[in-house]
Amino acid sequence: MLARYIGLSNETPYGLMKFLQLSKDSQLLPKLLTLQNSYNLLCRNFDSGLAECCHHERISLLAYSPMAMGILSGKYHLSDNCGPPDARMNLFKGRYSEGESRYKLQSPKVKAAVKISAKYGISPVTLAIAFVLRHPLVASAVFGATKLWQLDEVLQATTVHLCEEIVAEINDVHARYPNPCP
């Protein structure tokens, strides 16, 4: 059986370009179509090199963690006790050490991002997903929903237009707290 489509995950600009060169030299592989890397309104490492590579090579981004492991959903800021007890980061405390170290649940950067949604009357989930979907190289936002209302908020993001004022505020938060992710 022959692979028809190829995608990479968690890649760097060097790794992406090296793969493309090997693929071209071997002439055995079909063209690389997608790159699946983390991308959200706080973590934009993709924009630092990978976006340029993907643009020129016509590769689409499958953005995973658009809600920063659920942290941009706002549920961890509903109270001072770090969210509902059935939230993933509470149910599996210590198992998400990568996410726990990247995003402190009560950090100023996360609170600042969640406050934008409240100011404009948009759910934090809808804001986070809409921000990711507005990127011209994003083909899909890879998310997880465990409840139907969560899926409804994600789907709402496809109908929301983020005005320049909202995007400017998001960019201000990002400038103050750039790329908390590796």
UniProtKB/TrEMBL annotation:
InterPro entries cross-referenced by the UniProt entry: NAD(P)_OxRdtase_dom_sf, NADP_OxRdtase_dom
Domain NADP-dependent oxidoreductase: 3-173
Protein name (database record): NADP-dependent oxidoreductase domain-containing protein
Organism: Zea mays (Maize)
